Protein 1
Amino acid sequence: MAARTLMIQGTASHVGKSVLATALCRLYVRRGIQVAPFKAQNMSNNSFVTPDGKEIGRAQAVQAAACWLAPRSDFNPVLIKPESDHRAQLVVNGQVAGSLETHDFGRVAREYCGAVQQAFARLASEFDLVILEGAGSPAEINLRDQDIVNMRMAQAAKAPVLLVGDIDRGGVFAALVGTLTLLQPQERQHVKGFLINKLRGEAKLLTPGIRMIEAQTGVRCLGVLPHWINLQIPQEDSLGWDSWVQSHPYRPDSLTIGVADVPAISNFTDFEALSREPDVRLIRLDRMTTLRLDALIFPGTKNTSYALNFVKAKGLDQTARKVLAEGGTVIGLCGGYQMLGKGILDPLGVESSEPELEGMGLLDIVTRFAREKVTVRVTGLHRETGCPVDGYEVHMGQTSLSSKVAPLLMVKTAGESVERAEGAVSNDGRIMGTYVHGLFDVPLFRRMFLNRLRETRGWSPLEATTGSSLEQELDRLADFVQRYVDLAAVDAIIELGV
């Protein structure tokens, strides 16, 4: 018997589709139902590497965890990773399938709709319930013929749809009614309920508006959810900058850590654990600053060459030198690691038309781009302290170290027994780079790093704190949604289908 289905769509991007889909995954799996997440196409640079070395969107990896499943490429068969405003890398079934120009995005629907349907069919034959997530809005009528992720997917999966609107940005009633109005009649019949998300204030104040649009559209409101600021679930994309609200009181011994806001930033979640530490003030930098920084992080990016030119144009390379002169530390992650070196070689034009680009020259390393993409999970040790680490690599370059720098880590690729050197660190330990994403998610490594910064300031070290685990956060999220959503009505919608 094919799985039952439920789809979460939204009136716009960042209205809460991913979070609500995640909550529903956990709510239904806690009932003993075998649940799988599915998003046909995701556009995000915040990716995750599965145990078998495939690349999917981070949100689907979190949803897999909510379902008590290992992530797999079937959960997100098409991933588009923007490299610039006009170009993106295309990942299909977890592997690189080439590049796309903006004008050619319709090719995805033409060439990969079959791969999407096959991935969904595998899940539908294996699980009791598939919870699908849309992308952006189903009312992008100019792109209807290119759609493989919203209403076309709902129709193929015979999925009832819950439509989510975000009241925090205003205009939620117009967004809900406008979305329904722009849908075609056969699409509109899939929408069985709507949810209003991110309310600040009294829900009862919305009642007249809710009753009016229920009467006008014939679609019921199934819940009004309050805005939840301190949600410690990994964000899907760099809109997550908005979530860096300091939820702990200021303290005089707070460390100030800057994160360079480079173009096409990737794997934004690398810094979320730092932002939750009680002694860290994390700030976003898109230009030179006169602030004293204890550390400056250059993050990963989908276009290292473009990002490096941006860093130089905005004076962030000079900021890095200022940080070092004042006793601070500079870290490069993935593309940021490549930027710290002497140069980047791209003879095959993998990223740009520039065959050679001068780096910041902070580490004596050189990177050469290659067409083959590395996507692996790793475990290992911080070479100097023996602190355990784990994470994953997603990159298209190989970096060579001179004898003047040492490896930062010793790691093993998942499924292999051979240990290898990874990353680079300067002799004084204050400049470091690595391809491994997720290092700061490891509590002992994170606290070791922060305590070294504290030591430079003459401050006492703090104990490592694990905080709440992802499992605990997923249960908190599920409990929260259960309080505000009419789950009996959702159950009936799933049972009846379309």
Protein 2
Amino acid sequence: GLRVAKHGNRSVSSRSGAADVLESLGVKISITPEQAAECMEKCGMTFLFAQCYHGSMKYAAVPRRETGLRTVFNILGPLANPAHAEGMLLGVYDKLLIGPLAKVLMNVGVKSAMIVYGDDGFDEVSISDRTSVCEIKDGKTKKYELDPRDYGFTLAKKSDVVGGTAKENAKITLDVLNGVKGPKRDITVLNAGCALYVGKLAEDIHSGIAMAEKSIDSGAALKKLNMLKEFTNSFGENQE
């Protein structure tokens, strides 16, 4: 499968961040860089908790939380990923950012990427509207619109895929990995398919979607989450 290094933090401008959801799923998020590297080696995926790598960012957390607004800090996380991944699926909160962010990613060595903005306001590939994309491929950028209907999906209501608290999002994650059908699974496999495409494991997005569906339906995706949970909890004292 595709090796994934997710760099994230706790929630600031939304109800739950990646760190909050993973923690609710039982994953130990506060691990050292050395443990994170070991996790990548053993599990093929790892979570890089921003607070363990960029201590100065914590000083922006309070004002960000108080304003409740999305700012440049919402896109600094992926750009500051310590793993220096050459492939990336990056969601942004403003359509005007997809082009400039593509140039930034190319400047920091990213070889293959999709910078996406759901036209319904989602900072990911949407299942309830078209998605504006700027793709990095072969040293060039290309802008286009992605319509989920072109990939066999039925347009969903935005309210059907909006997340909630960390606990609610953890339940959604487990439901999807346990094979529950519906819009939440659809948006998961569509985004996973795009990630597999930019990660060059899939020839195109269609193939990536098929691979993502197979991973869920075979139980491999859930097995991988459980492996991540067990491995991270095998480490010693919490580093947070």
Protein 3
Amino acid sequence: MLEVDCSVLTPEIVFKTSGHVDRFADWMCKDPKFGDILRADHFVEEILEARLKGNKKARGQKVDEEEDGKKKKKKIKGAQEAVPLSKEVVKEYEEVLAKIDNYSGPELGELIRKYDLRHPKSDMQPTEPVAFNLMFGTKIGPSSNLAGYLRPETAQGQFMNFAKLLEFNQGAMPFASASVGKSYRNEISPRAGLLRVREFLMAEIEHFVDPESGKKHARFHEVEDVELDLLDRHTQLSGQTTITKMTIGKAVKDGIVDNETLGYFLARIYLFLKKIGVDMRKVRFRQHMANEMTDKPLLVRQRLETPRTVSEWEVTIERKKFGPWFKKDSKAVEAVILSSTQECREKWAKELEDSGKAIIEVPGLGNVDVNKDLLQVEYRSRTEHVRDYTPNVIEPSFGIGRILYALCEHAYWWREGGDEARSVLSFPPAIAPTKVIIMPLSSNKDFIPHVTRLSQKLRAAQISTRVDDSSASIGKRYSRNDELGTSLGLTVDFQTLKDGTITLRERDTTRQVRADTDTILTAIREIVGGSKTWEDIEKELPVFESQDVEDQ
């Protein structure tokens, strides 16, 4: 995998070619009374969700705590009223919500009118949705003649450098490139938080494969038994959100996931999220709808070890006569001819031979007669020494802020008893900002050399460490470091002065073990490195229970 660091500022022609100038947009509407700018799909989604919750309240049904919690984050305040709905209407709303990502602007406008969706602030329907391009535009250079944009994703830089990357990889396929950097999107209504922002850090991989290779992956066998929660395109189109749970091996075999390479990356994403501490019960893999896909054409030229003979129908256009004959329509007719299939060309060849003219269907012009003095279609054979093809691309894309947001939300909890002051962030040791907190039991000066020595050894092992020698009780110090996500705690006490042993405390269980300094430091390296778990350490080292470290 080749790492690429590309420019943030990109000329307009790049995004014009990729389709971003014309298609990289969200649908926007406006409150006609107060002028509030709304993202149309979010507006429809939030109003319908609020009506469904209002229906539950009107019927005395319990609104799930998690579902009700989302209400506090609503962008549209006052949208929820306790109004009963019929079963048919509830079903309609649920089907719309299941397909909310697949509606176009006109379709969203139709939904607003059909269900009389009004902004609670003005009690009026918003304006008709219009496309709003999400790229930040700018002018490049002192003359301001060259238009440009801040990149909305890191992919374009990788595609622009494709030829060089292929050359660096000695022309061999498959290969991959990766890029980590800032991207910019002019979001309609980002609000607070990390889920939707205008400037964000993202990481993308572009894995290029030969479409004729079957898209096999050499390491697929390593992940084929990983089980994923899948939401496929057909389920979404039916208005459902039913999750299908299956191994990635079976998903590829049954055609739910297209190929091994795509399946490999899906499984690796799952394993990565699981490793950093994301609650995988709250993760699903949703297949993109057809209108969410993008096209990024590239070209690879492969030298063939054995030349091959290709026989096919080829067209020859007499351009000197063709242009004057069709005049302004010549480009449209020529485009259809050059992009035609072998079946069409064979049919035209027969028509030219039988009647002297071919009947060609041109969009916007209907059937067009092309005489044989303007067009020739012949069946020819040629020897090819190279093969030109457009590679397929697998593009794993990660919003770093969103991953961190989900991780913090999934890792946060508080200890039983309802005391919110004893909250915990259960980061895995591998990603915890601080791995170890060192705490002397008191301000006794005799503890200082031991604390300093421990800190130096941990830093030498490249394990992030902090020292908390404040005057607070040991329990309060543990509690506030639990809230910061610190995985392990070392306590230097009076027993340390006698025999050199120290205690090691685990954040989530609050249990401790005690051993000599070198043994404890080895245990820390093994836990942080992932070779052992806390359960393994508890089995190996003596449990320490004589001191109550919690502040009761």
Protein 4
Amino acid sequence: MKITINGIVCDAKEGANVLQTARENGLYVPSLCYFPRTGTAGKCRACVAEVEGMRGLVTTCTTIVQEGMVVRTNSEKAIAAQKMVIDLQLSSGEHDCLSCQRNGDCELQTAAHFLGIKKPSYDVGERHCDLYDTSSESIIKDGTKCVKCNRCVDACNHVVMHEVLDMGERAHDMRVICDDDLPMGESSCVRCGECMQVCPTGALVSKAAEGKARSWELKKTRTICPYCGVGCNIDVVTKDGKILYGLGAEENWQELPNQGSLCVKGRFGLDYVNSPKRLTKPLVRKNGQLVETTWEEAMAAAAAGLKKVLDENGPRAIGCLSSAKTSNEDNYAMMRFSRGVLKTNNIDHCARL
């Protein structure tokens, strides 16, 4: 299917919306509420465009492509409406970009830059500055940066289905609430961080990264979560080689076992890598105390202990437990060692579901 956006002929998939098609063809259209995994929203009105044959401006995130469709997201009328929406959002919040964790990776900031908005134009009255919630162990919730896009609510209710977040109050006083307007740390939130990942601004950010890095100083490395047998694809976010948190992999998310989502372990449970309590050398027991030793001495002690049990009680007295924090190849080698060398089938895995 072919459609034309801003004079450029674009390939389009049947059933896709105009905004999705524009992005797939490398065309930027301002948007705050649309997120592929949370579905069509149509709330922020930042992605409006003119479409030949349709009256007025339409939201590109809710408009399904049709063969031969002609769309103009850069017309004078569309740009004026986009500017007004983004300007109002900037005017109604405390968007202190210089100190914000999302500086350089904020969709509101990107839209403002694209539209040439240098500073807020509107006086929207008194701002609510008492919405800074740090009660959660993992997430900072800053309502003064919220753009009421509803992404976090949709993700919480319809993606991970925890049903903790909702929109409270009305009009200018509207804000994201947890349960019956409880602090996040006192609510039924399980700290999976899905809301944090889908947030377009700095309204929901990682507590572990607060004040430690700016977006351009962070590195993302694609890997597999080490915790359970699902095999979630994650992007591990690091600063100077130290892990801060994990993000569900978004690229080709429909094909992944976790479909872009993560649980609390995969997102915030990777700090054991940097823990000073993590063992970096083998230990053997001498005179009732565990002491550091060489790998050679540790292997010899383990072999002697296993041989003693085998000689005295036979292979059924031995069981092996492998770890999710090693590779598939290492776990396979452990299985072969258990069954081929120790002659026991008593082997299990800590991530077996």
